[in-house]
Structure to design on (418 residues):
DNA sequence: TCTGGGGTCCTAGGACCC
DNA sequence: TCTGGGGTCCTAGGACCC
C-alpha cells in the first residue's frame, strides 16, 4: 500500500553559508559565520550583488535570499558579507550525497542542498525511521561539519514540508494523520508551488492558510488557476505520490547558460562575442551529455529590466558550438531593439540522443569537419584546462571567452516538480 | 537603491492540415 | 458562398523551484 512508504527529505541548513562557515573554521578562522549576522553574496561592482544565503542571526534582521546586498546592509549595518565559492559547495553537496547513499541506494538529489531518500521496507519498527534520520543527521554533522534538517513522511511533498519546520539540526515527521495539526495552520505561501504571484490571488479569495486552501472548492481553483490549481489543492491535502528517482541525465530537457554583464552592452559585436562565450560551455555540456538539440533560444534583459526572448526550431539536430553560435547570433539580431543590455542567455532544448544514424539532409555545412573540430576542442580542454583554447576573436576584447558552466559536469539537476 | 543563474512546466495565440 | 471544428506544431511569456 501507498501509506507504507517511508521518505526522508534532507535539507542542508543555510547551505552556502554553512558550507562556507565550516570550511573557514577548518582553515583556522576563529569566527563561525553561522553565529553572527552574515550572508554569502555576489559582487555589486559586477552587478551580481544579491544575497545567496543568510545565517540564522541575519534572518532575524528580516534579510531575505535574493534581495540586493544594498537592501540587506540597510537592514543590518554590521552585516558580514562573504563571496561565494561554487566549487566548494559542489564538493560539500557531493559529500552529503555520499553519506546518504550508505543508508539507501535510492537517493534523489533535488538541488545542490536537498535530497530525497527512500527508506521504505528497511524497518519493521515504527520508531526506527526517526532514530535512523537522527543517525544520518549526526553523521553529516560529525563528518562534514554542517547541520541538516530531515523531514519524514509517506511521500516526498510532506517530507519536504516537514524538513522546513524548526531549524537547524532537527528531525521532524509529518505523517498524513498529523496534517491538520502541523501543516494546515501554516500560511499558504509556505506550500510548495505557491509563489509570490499566486499568494496575493489566493489571499484575495480569502485563502490565507494551507488549511483554507485544502478545504476550498476545487472547481473554482481549477477554473482560476488551471492545472496548477489542482496541483496546489492536492498538495494542501497532502496528496503526492511521485517516486524517489535516482539522478541521471536521461530526463534532461535542456541546457542553458546566461550571465549578467558588468556593463551595459550597446553594440552588436560585443553581444555576439558574449553569446559565443555562453554557447561555448553549452556546447561542451551538450556533447558531454551525448545529446543533440533542435531548439535554440536566446534571451536578453535590458538595463530597464524588461526581458524578451526568441527561439527557433531547427530542421536538424546538432551539438556543434559553431552551428548553435551562429543561430544564436541570428536570433539575437532579430530580437534586439537597440536598448542597452544587462543580461544575455542562451539555451538549447528538444534534446535527442546523439546516435548519428539518422543525420538530416538539411544539416548545413561540412558535418564531419565540424564534428572533428568540436571533438578536438573538447579533448584539448579536457587535457589542458578549459581556458587552454579560446576563440581568437576574444583576444584583446576584454571579455571572458568562456562563460558559466562552473566547475564540474556533475552539477545537480534541479526541478520545480517533485 | 539594487535587483543571479540554472532549471521545468504551463498557457495562449496563430499557422496549418484534415 | 459561407460556415464549423479538432489536432498538432511553433512561439513568446510567465509561473514555480532552489
Amino acid at each position: 500500500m501507498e501509506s507504507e512508504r517511508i521518505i526522508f527529505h534532507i535539507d542542508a541548513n543555510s547551505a552556502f553559508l554553512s558550507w562556507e562557515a565550516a570550511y573557514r573554521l577548518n582553515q583556522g578562522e576563529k569566527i563561525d559565520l553561522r553565529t553572527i549576522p552574515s550572508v554569502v553574496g555576489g559582487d555589486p561592482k559586477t552587478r551580481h550583488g544579491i544575497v545567496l544565503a543568510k545565517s540564522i542571526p541575519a534572518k532575524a534582521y528580516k534579510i531575505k535570499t535574493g534581495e540586493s546586498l544594498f537592501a540587506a546592509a540597510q537592514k543590518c549595518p554590521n552585516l558580514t558579507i562573504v563571496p561565494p565559492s561554487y566549487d566548494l559547495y559542489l564538493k560539500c553537496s557531493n559529500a552529503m550525497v555520499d553519506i546518504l547513499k550508505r543508508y539507501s541506494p535510492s537517493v534523489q538529489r533535488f538541488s545542490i542542498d536537498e535530497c530525497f531518500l527512500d527508506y521504505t521496507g528497511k524497518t519493521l519498527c515504527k520508531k526506527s525511521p526517526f532514530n535512523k534520520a537522527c543517525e544520518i543527521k549526526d553523521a553529516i554533522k560529525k563528518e562534514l561539519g554542517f547541520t541538516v534538517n530531515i523531514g519524514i513522511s509517506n511521500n516526498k511533498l510532506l517530507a519536504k514540508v516537514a524538513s522546513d519546520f524548526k531549524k537547524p539540526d532537527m528531525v521532524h515527521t509529518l505523517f498524513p494523520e498529523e496534517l491538520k495539526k502541523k501543516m494546515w495552520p501554516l500560511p499558504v505561501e509556505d506550500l510548495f508551488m505557491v509563489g509570490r504571484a499566486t499568494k496575493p490571488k489566493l489571499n484575495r479569495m480569502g485563502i490565507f492558510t494551507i488549511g483554507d486552501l485544502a478545504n476550498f472548492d476545487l472547481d473554482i481553483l481549477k477554473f482560476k488557476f488551471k492545472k496548477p490549481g489542482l496541483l496546489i489543492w492536492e498538495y494542501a491535502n497532502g496528496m503526492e505520490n511521485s517516486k524517489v528517482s535516482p539522478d541521471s541525465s536521461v530526463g534532461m530537457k535542456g541546457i542553458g547558460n546566461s550571465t549578467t554583464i558588468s556593463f551595459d552592452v550597446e553594440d552588436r559585436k560585443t553581444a555576439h562575442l558574449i553569446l559565443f562565450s555562453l554557447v561555448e560551455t553549452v556546447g561542451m555540456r551538450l556533447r558531454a551529455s551525448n545529446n543533440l538539440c533542435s531548439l535554440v533560444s536566446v534571451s536578453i534583459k535590458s538595463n530597464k529590466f524588461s526581458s524578451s526572448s526568441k527561439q527557433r526550431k531547427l530542421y536538424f539536430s546538432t551539438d556543434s558550438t559553431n552551428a548553435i553560435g551562429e543561430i544564436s547570433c541570428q536570433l539575437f539580431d532579430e530580437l534586439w531593439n537597440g536598448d542597452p543590455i544587462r543580461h544575455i542567455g542562451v539555451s538549447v532544448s528538444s534534446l535527442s540522443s546523439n546516435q548519428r544514424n539518422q543525420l538530416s539532409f538539411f544539416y548545413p555545412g561540412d558535418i564531419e569537419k565540424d564534428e572533428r573540430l568540436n571533438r578536438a576542442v573538447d579533448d584539448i580542454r579536457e587535457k589542458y584546462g578549459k581556458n587552454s583554447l579560446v576563440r581568437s576573436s576574444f583576444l584583446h576584447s576584454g571579455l571572458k571567452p568562456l562563460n558559466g558552466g562552473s566547475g564540474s559536469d556533475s552539477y545537480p539537476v534541479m526541478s520545480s516538480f517533485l
